[in-house]
Design a protein that fits this description.
Low-confidence stretches: none
Strand order of the largest sheet: 5-4-8-9-7
Number of strands: 9
Order of helices and strands: HHEEHEEEEHEHEE
Helix content: 25-40%
Largest sheet: 5 strands, mixed
Strand content: 15-25%
Number of helices: 5
Distance between the termini: 65 Å
């Protein structure tokens, strides 16, 4: 029975070539679009799932109109987090994350480095995000002002194999930051 269906299908494809090409091409484009959209959705939903509290982490963004243009940015005023924790009981904690837009000059003893990707965060950062610290206590590393947590790659670049915790690095030759942890 299935053999007859295949024979009839093959004969119809040969008999109506233009119609068959349009149908097969449409089916192929539909499958390709479905696969690409599905892959995009899976990719978008895969971010930050390794955090223990991933289901309770939200990002505040601003949607609106400015001078007739649509505005959709993940930027808010500095006191927004404090006001939300104070006024909305469902919000337990907040942290602010600000990326420094340019390369920063660091110096330690006689060594000088330029580093990109510098983030400024609140002391509650490690309470919300569960990044594993290789060195340091997540509850204490960002408590004091001018505390600095380095990635293991940057710590090795700056200090080699020695323990960086407790050492002071100068940033842009004017502010000293004490290394309190390695992530």
């Amino acid at each position: 029975m299935f053999k007859n269906y295949f024979i009839i299908t093959f004969r119809n494809i040969l008999r109506q070539k233009g119609y068959s090409v349009i149908n097969i091409l449409g089916l192929a484009i539909g499958f390709a679009a479905f696969i690409l959209i599905f892959m995009h959705i899976i990719h978008e939903l895969s971010f930050d799932k390794f955090h223990e509290k991933a289901d309770r982490i939200y990002r505040v963004s601003v949607n609106g109109m400015v001078a007739g243009d649509a505005l959709n940015v993940a930027v808010s005023a500095a006191p927004t987090g404090e006001a939300m924790v104070r006024d909305i009981p469902q919000i337990l904690s907040f942290t602010r994350v600000d990326q420094f837009p340019q390369s920063v000059h660091f110096s330690y003893n006689d060594r000088n480095f330029y580093q990109e990707g510098l983030l400024f965060v609140d002391s509650t950062f490690f309470d919300i995000f569960s990044f594993k610290l290789l060195i340091g206590n997540p509850k204490m590393v960002l408590v004091n002002p001018y505390s600095l947590v380095l990635t293991s790659t940057v710590a090795e670049k700056f200090f080699g194999q020695e323990n960086p915790v407790g050492k002071t690095i100068m940033m842009n030759n004017n502010a000293g930051f004490t290394v309190t942890g390695v992530v």
